[in-house]
Amino acid sequence: MMFLLEIFTFLAIIYLLILIFLRIKLFKSRLISKVCINCCPKCYHPLERMKSNLYNKLTNFLTIDIFQFMKFYCNKCKWNGLLAKYSKKITV
Ligand SMILES: [Zn+2]
User: Fold this and answer.
1) C-alpha of residue 4 to centroid of ligand 1, in Å
2) pLDDT tens across 5-61, in order?
3) What spacing in Å lies between the alpha carbon of 77 and ligand 1's midpoint?
4) Spatial separation of the C-alpha atoms in residues 71 and 62, rounded to whole Å
5) Is 77 a residue whose pLDDT tops 80?
6) Burial of 56 per CB tally in 10 Å (0-12, 13-18, 19+)
């Protein structure tokens, strides 16, 4: 039994380290440009907020809310997906 617990702890630590690494790397960050504060990752058109669904909530739960993902979509190119709460500046 002790052995299983150690494996579980080890995996949990690895998982946490991956999450922290992705957070530092600004994984799925929103994009800020001169013309918009939340630009589409594909065409840089301003994004629209979508109502969060179960997938959104589950993703935040499984990532211990470290990214605080929200769902967005693009009117122009129809991109949609989750982006984290933090932003990254871009020059387009
Ligand atoms: Zn777009």
Assistant:
1) 46
2) 999 999 999 999 999 999 999 999 999 999 999 999 999 999 999 999 999 999 999
3) 4
4) 16
5) yes
6) middle
φ/ψ (deg, to 5) at 65: 60, 25
| Distance between Cα 57 and ligand 1 center (Å) | 23
> The pTM is what?
0.88
Question: What pLDDT sits at residue 1?
Answer: 66
What is the tally of structural domains in the chain? Answer: 1
User: 85: Cβ–Cβ under 8 A, 6 or more apart, which residues?
Assistant: 30, 67, 68, 69, 70
Question: Measured between alpha carbons, how far apart are the two ends of the chain, in Å?
Answer: 55
